[in-house]
Design a protein that fits this description.
This protein is mainly β and 314 residues long. It contains three helices and 21 strands. Bound molecules: calcium ion (2 copies).
């Protein structure tokens, strides 16, 4: 009997408290708040993670019509040097390519150099590009250099390595995996006298990432509002972390969802995200989702009970 009276009193106090709080919020919020949520989530719900392509280290077709930003040339004289052509008849694709004409007046020693490329984050790197030339004029050749601190490797030489009797575009591909962990630049050196002209286009350098973040939601707790801990347990920083907390089920008057973004969660670090205040009662399911630019997504479900502003996740 005593218990029933206490329950009755508690109910009256609860309702009075609810009405008091609700009267202090605006009308449109009230309209939304009194709709019980019908959407349900089961523990088996799959979150599809989307892998983004972060593997492009360099992609250059010279379509800007000028030497791309960060590229450079070395010229040893003023005649027949590297330039960016803009006649589509001479490009591999598009309108432009990088080109050096043969010189039968002076020796050529003309360099075209990419920006520095940091290969520290990758486990595999491939390098593909197209060459216009032939090997019928061996007075000059083109050498492909991979250069970095303390090394200058010639990995290809037109006259030594090819036998191209027909003039035109040829695709070349190289494996740069042995340069992983280093910062390199790639240079095309056109060198000699009275050779064939030489053009390049459609350069693609692609890497496979060595490491990636791993997001984990390690706790979801009350008692006032909800706090969720999102931890990066991976081997790379998680950037632009989008998170959301949604409550599904029960009667929720205030604070049934929240979302936000965190610029970075470094390796072995965590952040706490929260809905500061929830007002409701009944059983609910808390669903926390986090995803980052690196294409990793995680989520966690937690059963909870609401009693006004108090949340129990036991
Ligand atoms: Ca092009
Ligand atoms: Ca020259």
């Amino acid at each position: 009997m005593n218990n029933k009276i206490i329950q009755l009193k508690a109910s009256v106090i609860c309702i009075a408290f609810c009405l008091l709080l609700l009267s202090s919020t605006n009308v449109s919020a009230n309209k939304q708040s009194f709709q019980p949520l019908k959407k349900t989530i089961t523990g088996n719900q799959q979150i599809i993670s989307q892998k983004l392509d972060k593997g492009s280290i360099l992609s250059e077709g010279f379509e800007g019509g000028e030497l791309p930003e960060g590229w450079s040339v070395i010229e040893t004289n003023s005649y027949q040097n590297w330039f960016i052509g803009s006649d589509p008849a001479w490009a591999h694709t598009g309108n432009c390519e990088a080109w050096v004409n043969y010189d039968n007046h002076e020796n050529s020693d003309e360099w075209l150099i990419t920006p520095n490329l940091d290969l520290t984050e990758y486990v595999a790197v491939t390098f593909v590009f197209w060459v216009w030339s032939d090997t019928n004029f061996p007075g000059a050749t083109a050498k492909l250099h991979i250069r970095g601190t303390g090394f200058d490797d010639i990995i290809w030489d037109l006259i030594q390595d090819e036998s191209w009797v027909t003039t035109g575009w040829y695709q070349l591909s190289f494996n740069l995996t042995s340069y992983i962990g280093k910062t390199i630049n790639i240079s095309w050196q056109y060198v000699g006298f009275n050779g064939q002209s030489f053009g390049i286009d459609d350069i693609e350098i692609k890497g496979t990432m060595a490491s990636e973040p791993a997001l984990q939601i390690t706790s979801i707790t009350g008692p006032i509002g909800i706090k969720a801990t999102i931890e990066n347990t991976g081997t790379a920083n998680a950037t632009n972390v989008q998170w959301s907390i949604n409550l599904n089920g029960g009667y929720i008057f205030l604070g049934n969802s929240k979302a936000g973004e965190e610029p970075i969660i470094p390796i072995n670090s965590s952040i706490v995200v929260k809905i500061p205040l929830i007002l409701g009662f009944g059983k609910t399911i808390i669903h926390v989702v986090a995803s980052c630019t690196e294409g990793v997504t995680t989520d966690k479900l937690q059963n909870a009970s609401m009693l006004l502003v108090f949340i129990s996740t036991k």
